């Protein structure tokens, strides 16, 4: 692998940024929701879908992307947004519903739009595939070597939009990479209960495009496989489908009782933490010292702390501003 | 009422489905997380444990497939209840609903029957933003061929659900999340009502006068019934007696109760949590303008979401959703 120490440490730090962000968000979310949990209470109301444990997919994939490449995320979008380089302050402020947020408080955590970093996401399952095709189509029409990445969960691969988008992308040889995060659960429904075949990457065969399964929740494994797909797309050779096995440490949403999930599942997953494993690997291979790792982790925490402070201190939007932005002027 | 047992709306819905599943083996349930989870909003709680995966079927996230399959199974004589988790997700399956479920009976010259109940969650007020907070029943009431049920209390929810399951036509059944009586979401306490244990039906097309009054008619449904009742209580302290009509079903629509009320009160306010334009409030206003214009002492007023998507941030969402205070204020301006 051709990654420098600086790049590897940057990936390590970014994974910690995501983890701290999600853990701190989980804590902020619970403010105002105890002793009686009410989804609409506290500084961060509404649904909250966190991606702790899923850092390798976002970081390993986005490492290959440039600012002009497009990413379309999901209802569980924070790790993608952070890996795509969105300003943490604006991201956090949006989730706190503040005027300084990405969407001035109108979008919220499932609906993050950053035009500058070409990032968007949606609360509708399977909605990422078609617009990623569109971004890829535009790049092709404009003669750019930009690529587009659509992320989605394994549950989304059973939506019609997935199959339509794959066919379209293959037919038109679009520079798009479809990346499925297989965290094994679509809310309470397991992949085995919902999907006719165990490996979604095999579905690529139906559209005549490469399909690869990454069977470990490992940032470097993701990096390698996505790298090939991105290069292929930039060369004008068309789309790829990748499915990555990953782990959801939290519930589907915060407050999910998770009665459907075996009790020992999450502790087992957490014992195989992909960030700790990556750090250990960097140490063992003599790439980084413990001091390097600690510094990266601390820097990530400082960034997240600053972003949360910014969000908390920011003003709420004026109520009547709800009427603005339905159309651009 | 002989039976004073109180239920939440979610429990009343689940009980109605349970009783009909017991009565009629053709009834079965399909949807995302309707099994072990019991429905994200509790509408199918306990059914999986009782009837098993054969009759309470968790589906893939494939709404076009399983809602279309409900239509197909109904055509064969089954009576599916199928859940679209949030109404906002309609986009991924609208063709099967709008062009098939709604129209097949008509296109068949009345020969084909589709006894499908399509349940779905509606409503905001808990900061779930633009893709998880809409009501949209107006959109489905617009296309001919779907009966549209929108209960506001547990009592109504049970009787209307049993009627829905026994109806030989497609019924869309909208339950407001803030009325379900969930442990994790604030709910209006008035939605919890005495609910008889024995099965009973409530006919479609019969509005319910939730509060009688002489001065102004407030027409509404779902959560806005309760907001209107809250406003009516405030107004009563000022000597203004509001009559609050809960439409309960949009299709069929009880025009008579609305028109007769306006003839009595001479004032009409229509309150809706759906979008303002081209929807329920305009429809009710038009009916009253057509049938009772001469009785009006004040211009008809409407309160609804002011043609913006539902914003996330709390002050923004509270600004666009009609509340009791704004309803009361509006009534006061009509009394002059």
Largest sheet composition of chain B: 7 strands, mixed
State the helix count of chain A.
11
- How big is the Rg of chain B? 19 Å
First-residue to last-residue Cα separation of chain A = 49 Å
Tally of helical segments of chain B: 12
Helix residue percentage of chain A: 40-55%
Notes on the structure:
The complex is a heterodimer of chains A (329) and B (336). Helices cover 41% and strands 10% of the residues of chain A. Chain A is of the alpha/beta class. Chain B is of the alpha/beta class. Chain B contains 12 helices and 14 strands. Chain B has helices at residues 9-23, 47-51, 63-75, 94-101, 104-107, 137-142, 154-166, 223-237, 255-265, 280-292, 314-320, 324-335, and strands at residues 6-7, 27-31, 56-58, 79-86, 117-122, 147-149, 171-176, 193-194, 208-211, 216-220, 242-246, 249-251, 268-275, 301-305. Chain B has a 7-stranded mixed β-sheet, sandwiched between helices. Chain B has a 5-stranded mixed β-sheet with strand order 9-11-10-13-14, with helices on both faces. In chain B, strand 13, helix 10 (280-292) and strand 14 (301-305) form a beta-alpha-beta unit. The radius of gyration of chain B is 19 Å and the shape is globular. The interface between A and B is large, with 49 and 43 residues.
List its salient traits.
heterodimer; A: 329 residues; alpha/beta; two-stranded antiparallel ribbon; 8 strands; B: 336 residues; seven-stranded mixed β-sheet; five-stranded mixed β-sheet; 12 helices; 36% helix
């Amino acid at each position: 692998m051709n990654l420098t120490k600086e790049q590897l440490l940057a990936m390590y730090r970014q994974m910690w940024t995501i983890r701290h962000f999600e853990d701190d968000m989980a804590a902020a979310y619970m403010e105002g929701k105890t002793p009686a949990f009410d989804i609409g209470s506290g500084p961060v109301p509404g649904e909250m879908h966190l991606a702790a444990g899923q850092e390798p997919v976002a970081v390993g994939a986005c490492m290959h992307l440039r600012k002009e490449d497009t990413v379309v995320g999901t209802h569980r979008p924070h790790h993608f947004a952070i890996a795509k380089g969105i300003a943490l302050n604006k991201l956090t402020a949006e989730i706190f519903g503040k005027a300084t947020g990405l969407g001035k408080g109108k979008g919220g955590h499932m609906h993050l739009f950053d035009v500058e970093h070409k990032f968007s996401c949606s609360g509708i399952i399977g909605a990422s595939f078609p617009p990623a095709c569109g971004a890829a189509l535009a790049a092709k029409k404009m003669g750019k070597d930009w690529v587009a990445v659509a992320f989605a969960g394994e549950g989304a691969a059973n939506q019609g939009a997935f199959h339509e988008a794959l066919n379209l992308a293959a037919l038109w040889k679009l520079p798009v990479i479809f990346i499925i995060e297989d965290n094994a659960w679509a809310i309470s429904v397991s992949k085995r209960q919902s999907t006719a075949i165990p490996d979604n990457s095999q579905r690529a065969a139906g559209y005549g495009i490469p399909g690869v399964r990454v069977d470990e929740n490992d940032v470097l494994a993701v990096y390698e496989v996505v790298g090939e797909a991105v290069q292929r797309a930039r060369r004008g050779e068309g789309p790829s489908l990748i499915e990555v096995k990953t782990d959801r440490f939290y519930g589907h949403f915060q407050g999910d009782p998770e009665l459907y999930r075996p009790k020992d599942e999450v502790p087992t997953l957490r014992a195989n933490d992909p960030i700790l494993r990556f750090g250990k690997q960097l140490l063992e291979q003599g790439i980084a010292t413990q001091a390097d790792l600690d510094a990266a982790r601390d820097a990530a925490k400082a960034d997240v702390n600053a972003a949360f402070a910014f969000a908390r201190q920011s003003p709420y939007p004026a109520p009547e501003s709800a009427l603005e932005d339905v159309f651009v002027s | 009422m002989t039976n004073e047992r109180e239920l939440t709306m979610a429990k009343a819905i689940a009980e109605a489905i349970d009783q009909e599943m017991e009565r009629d083996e053709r009834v079965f349930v399909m949807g995302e997380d309707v099994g072990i989870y019991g429905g994200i909003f509790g509408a199918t709680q306990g059914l999986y444990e009782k009837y098993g995966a054969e009759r309470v079927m968790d589906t893939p996230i494939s709404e076009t497939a399983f809602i279309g399959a409900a239509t197909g199974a109904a055509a064969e004589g089954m009576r599916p209840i199928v859940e679209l988790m949030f109404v906002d997700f309609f986009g991924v399956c609208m063709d099967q609903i709008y062009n098939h479920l709604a129209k097949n009976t008509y296109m068949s010259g009345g020969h084909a029957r589709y006894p499908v109940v399509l349940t779905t969650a509606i409503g905001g007020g808990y900061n779930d933003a633009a893709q998880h907070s809409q009501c949209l029943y107006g959109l489905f009431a617009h296309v001919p061929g779907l009966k549209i049920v929108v209960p506001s209390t547990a009592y109504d929810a049970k009787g209307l659900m049993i009627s829905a399951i026994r109806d030989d036509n497609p019924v869309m059944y909208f339950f407001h999340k803030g009325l379900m009586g969930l442990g994790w979401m604030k709910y209006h306490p008035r939605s919890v009502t005495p609910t008889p244990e024995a099965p009973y039906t409530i006919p479609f097309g019969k509005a319910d006068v939730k509060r009688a009054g002489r001065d102004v008619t407030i027409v509404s449904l779902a959560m806005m019934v309760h907001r209107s009742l809250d406003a009516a209580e405030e107004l009563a302290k000022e000597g203004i007696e509001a009559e609050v009509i809960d439409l309960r079903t949009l299709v069929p629509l009880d025009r008579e109760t609305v028109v007769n009320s306006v003839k009595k009160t001479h004032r009409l306010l229509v309150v809706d949590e759906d979008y303002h334009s081209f929807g329920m409030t305009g429809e009710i206003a038009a009916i009253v303008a057509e049938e009772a214009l001469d009785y009006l002492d004040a211009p008809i007023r409407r309160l609804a979401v002011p043609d913006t998507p539902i914003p996330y941030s709390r002050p923004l969402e509270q600004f666009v959703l009609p509340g009791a205070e704004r309803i009361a204020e509006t009534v006061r301006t009509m009394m002059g």
